[in-house]
Every structure is written in C-alpha cells, then in structure tokens.
UniProtKB/TrEMBL annotation:
<feature type="modified residue" description="2-(S-cysteinyl)pyruvic acid O-phosphothioketal">
    <location>
        <position position="115"/>
    </location>
</feature>
<keyword id="KW-0573">Peptidoglycan synthesis</keyword>
<dbReference type="InterPro" id="IPR005750">
    <property type="entry name" value="UDP_GlcNAc_COvinyl_MurA"/>
</dbReference>
<protein>
    <recommendedName>
        <fullName>UDP-N-acetylglucosamine 1-carboxyvinyltransferase</fullName>
        <ecNumber>2.5.1.7</ecNumber>
    </recommendedName>
</protein>
<keyword id="KW-0132">Cell division</keyword>
<feature type="binding site">
    <location>
        <begin position="22"/>
        <end position="23"/>
    </location>
    <ligand>
        <name>phosphoenolpyruvate</name>
    </ligand>
</feature>
<feature type="binding site">
    <location>
        <position position="309"/>
    </location>
    <ligand>
        <name>UDP-N-acetyl-alpha-D-glucosamine</name>
    </ligand>
</feature>
<keyword id="KW-0961">Cell wall biogenesis/degradation</keyword>
<feature type="binding site">
    <location>
        <position position="331"/>
    </location>
    <ligand>
        <name>UDP-N-acetyl-alpha-D-glucosamine</name>
    </ligand>
</feature>
<keyword id="KW-0808">Transferase</keyword>
<dbReference type="InterPro" id="IPR050068">
    <property type="entry name" value="MurA_subfamily"/>
</dbReference>
<comment type="similarity">
    <text>Belongs to the EPSP synthase family. MurA subfamily.</text>
</comment>
<keyword id="KW-0133">Cell shape</keyword>
<dbReference type="InterPro" id="IPR013792">
    <property type="entry name" value="RNA3'P_cycl/enolpyr_Trfase_a/b"/>
</dbReference>
<comment type="function">
    <text>Cell wall formation. Adds enolpyruvyl to UDP-N-acetylglucosamine.</text>
</comment>
<keyword id="KW-0670">Pyruvate</keyword>
<keyword id="KW-0131">Cell cycle</keyword>
Length: 422
C-alpha cells in the first residue's frame, strides 16, 4: 500500500495542467452502454475510479481499449447484471443502472454500500426510474429494475431531503434518452458534470435541452450512435491546487481550466485574502498567497454554490489562517473525518452537527496521518505542505481514486513530496 511523505515548508510555484474531470468521466463512460456503436472519450484521467469503471464495462461485456487518456468503448453485446463483486469498490458504479435499464429493458445492479462521508442512499435514482415506468425490487442486496415494454417519458421531480442529486439526475437523464415520448426532470442537479454528460448524450443523437438548469427536457429517440467526446477539466482538482497555492504558493498557474466552473471557489479564496487572476480567455489562472490571510465562512451547496468536494481542502487552509473560520456542509453533514487527522497535526477544530469551527494556529506539525476518503486525503496533503517536519499520509489509495499523478504535479511545482511503496 503506497504512502506519501510530504516534507513541509517548501514554497510552491510554476505551472501545471489540470486533468479531465473524474466525476464527468464516470457517468460518460457508463453512458457508452446506451449504444452498440464505438464511443471515443478523450481526457479521461488516469485514476483508479476511471479504471474501475473500465473494469465494470468490461465485466458487462463491452470491448474497452484505453491509451493515454483516451478510452474507446464498444458495447455491442452486454449483460444486464452488475453484481456486488463488480460494483462494491466504487459508489459511482450506480450510474450503469439507467443505461442498462434503457438498453436491455431490465437490470440487476448491486446496491452500493455506505460511505465514510455519510449515508448515501439511491432512493431518488430508483424513484426516478420508476417514474419512467420501471418496476423496482430490492433482492439480495441488488436493485432489480424491469421495463419489458420499454420506458415512457414522464415528469420526474428529483428533489431529495438535501436538494438535487447529481448521479440521480444522470441516471434518469440517460434512461430517458431511449424512453418513448418526453421526459421533464425538475429539481435537476445543475453541476457542470451533468452538462458534460448531456453534451455527450446529444453527440450520440439524444435530444436533451436545459442541462445546467433545474429543468431538463429529454425527447426520447429510438437509437443512439457512437461519438467522440472531450471530457471537461476537473474543477475539483483545479480547486485543490488553488488552495495549495493559497497555502504555500509564490505564484501557481493552472492551465486547461474553465473559469466559469470555479466561481464559488475563487470567491472563497478571495474572501480569505488570496489573489486569483484568470487570463482573458478564462482557461488558465494564477493564484498567489495573500499577505494578510483572513478567516472566512463557507457553506456547501449544490452548484453553483460552494462544492462539498472542496470542503476538506478549505478546512486545511483555515487551519493556519489567523482568526476563527467556519465550514458548514449541508450536503454531507458527516463529511468531517479529515478534521480528526488535522487535529493530530495541531489544528484547533471543533466539529458539531455538520459544522466545523476552525481557529487558525500559527503552524501545524507533521504527524503520521491516515486518509479516510478522497477529499480528506487531499486536505491532509495540503496541510502537510506548510507543516513543520515530514508528514506521512497512509492509505494513499483514497487520493489515487481521484487525483491523476498528484505527487508528480506537486513535485513539478517544487514541493518535496515522495511516494513510498510498502
Ligand atoms: C461520482 C460523483 O459525481 N460524485 C459526486 C456526486 O455524488 P452523488 O451523485 O452520489 O451525490 P448526490 O448529489 O446524489 O448527493 C446529494 C445529497 O442527496 C442525498 N441523496 C442522493 C441520492 C439519493 O437517491 N437520495 C439521497 O437522499 C445524498 O445522501 C446527499 O446528501 O455529487 C456529490 C455532491 O455534489 C459529490 O460530493 C460527489 O463527488
Ligand atoms: C465523493 C466523491 O466521489 P464519490 O461520489 O465517487 O464517492 C468525490 O469525488 O469527492
């Protein structure tokens, strides 16, 4: 199992290129199951989650080739069953449900387990697919969906207790592309990854309007075709490096970003006293640590609000920002596992009921720490960049789920970081 050793205290500077989005790639890869023709997807990040999705597609019978960021999928003859062995390692495997149901008229998909960031039910996914006419049963830990006479367009509201659902919107949108008639999704998630999936589906011949707004309309078509698609840049990877620059940066430039996807993160960093400058076309930005960092408050919200996937990283920044900052997670109120590890590095954080109150200390000190989930591990890496001494971050497989070559990118910026294979 790999661990990362971060020798703190070296300023970072220079330029790196942001990879394609993990969270856009996963549903797009699943959507290739909707056609028997060739799909070519470019800028798929080389991270373990996209590798799992490739394994899932292969286990379902698709022919998949992967070469330097490009994945070619031909799902000519596929099975309708994704069992627990295949899906258990990644929650996002739930997004094969919509495509399999639409293509095969039936699917059996193992329910994903719980998750350290909180309870993650799929009731809205199932309710949405039932709204399109599927019958659903839970049998032996699997969701069994069937629609022998095909799916029928309908109006589906996807608002849950915590607001819209991203992968739930993806699942219903994918299934509705091959349903008879018109589907209207209300309370749809507006995340850029949903828009990228809709762009991919439209390139396959789907008729989707309104993606990126709370109301998405899908006119069903009889068949989808193959296409070529470039995945959008990963706004969470970009945000993570923006925070790294605010912590330890003497001018860090991020290339191949989309400035419009980074508004909430940029506002939060500027409020905390750091400088963010975009180039004229908005595909690169440079971040400098401010001379007078200030405490701030962030509240996670569905897009375009501040993303929950950037909450842990900002907590790491606030850990050494003078004054008292506050972080509230309204989407995953239990997503504060990183705080216990940051406290082991000397942070002053009180967590209660979905909220962390963080009193900035002058400097953190290195400690052996344990990554608990993807973004928590990113937060520990960030905290270690300015901590006194060498921090060992264990269970690196969490970070490898979603950050492409993070050690190499940090090294390219001058950080003293080493991956140790045990
Ligand atoms: C692979 C991927 O893209 N993952 C992202 C996606 O996860 P994912 O799509 O799984 O997250 P959701 O948007 O569905 O979750 C939002 C909220 O709705 C609740 N909920 C969700 C589904 C459901 O059927 N019932 C229900 O109650 C969840 O528990 C949570 O409180 O969006 C999350 C919220 O931006 C991000 O943190 C994840 O990184
Ligand atoms: C929580 C995340 O991913 P997943 O939904 O796949 O767990 C994430 O990308 O931060």
């Amino acid at each position: 199992m790999d661990k990362l050793i971060v020798h703190g205290g070296t300023p970072i500077h220079g330029a790196i290129t942001i990879s394609g989005s993990k969270n856009a790639s996963l549903p797009i890869l699943a959507a290739t199951l909707l056609t028997d023709e060739d799909c070519v997807i470019r800028r798929v990040p080389d991270v373990s989650d996209t590798n799992y999705m490739v394994q899932i597609l292969t286990a379902l019978g698709a022919d998949v080739e992967r070469f330097s960021g490009t994945v070619r999928v031909t799902a000519a003859d596929i099975s309708d069953t994704a069992d627990y062995e295949i899906v258990r390692r990644m929650r996002a495997s739930v997004c094969v449900m919509g495509p399999l149901l639409a293509r095969k008229g039936r699917c059996v998909v193992a329910l994903p387990g719980g998750c350290v960031i909180g309870d993650r039910p799929v009731d809205l996914h199932v309710r949405g697919l039932e709204g399109l006419g599927a019958k659903a049963e839970i049998e032996g830990g699997n969701v069994v969906l069937s629609a022998p006479d095909g799916l029928k367009g309908a109006t589906i509201d996807l608002c849950g207790p915590m607001g819209p659902t991203v992968l739930g919107t993806d699942n219903v949108m994918m299934a509705a592309t091959l349903a008879e008639g018109i589907t209207t999704i209300t309370s749809a998630a507006c995340e850029p990854e949903v828009v990228d999936l809709a762009d991919f589906l439209n390139a396959m011949g789907a008729k989707i309007r309104g993606a990126g707004t709370p109301v998405i309309t899908i006119e069903g078509v009889a068949k989808l075709k193959g296409c070529v698609h470039n995945v959008i840049p990963d706004r969470i990877e970009a945000g993570t490096f923006m925070v790294a620059a605010a912590l330890a940066g003497e001018g860090v430039t991020l290339r191949r970003i989309r400035h419009e996807h980074l508004t909430a993160i940029t506002q939060a960093l500027r409020k905390a006293g750091h400088q963010v400058h975009f180039n004229d076309v908005g595909d690169a930005c440079t971040v400098h640590r401010g001379d007078n960092p200030m405490p701030a408050e962030i509240v996670t919200e569905p897009y375009p609000g501040y993303p929950t996937d950037m909450q842990a990283q900002m907590s790491a920044l606030f850990a050494t920002t003078p004054g008292t900052s506050m972080v509230v997670d309204t989407i995953f109120p239990q997503r504060f596992m990183h705080c216990a590890e940051l406290k082991r590095m000397g942070a002053d954080i009180q967590v209660s009921e979905g909220k962390a109150v963080i009193k900035g200390v002058e400097q953190l000190s290195a400690a052996p720490v344990m990554a608990s989930d993807l973004r928590a591990s990113a937060a520990l890496v960030l905290a270690a960049l300015t901590a006194k001494g060498s921090t060992e971050i264990r269970r690196l497989y969490h970070i490898d789920r979603g950050y492409e070559h993070i050690d190499e990118k940090l090294q390219a910026l001058g950080a003293h970081v080493e991956r140790v294979r045990e």
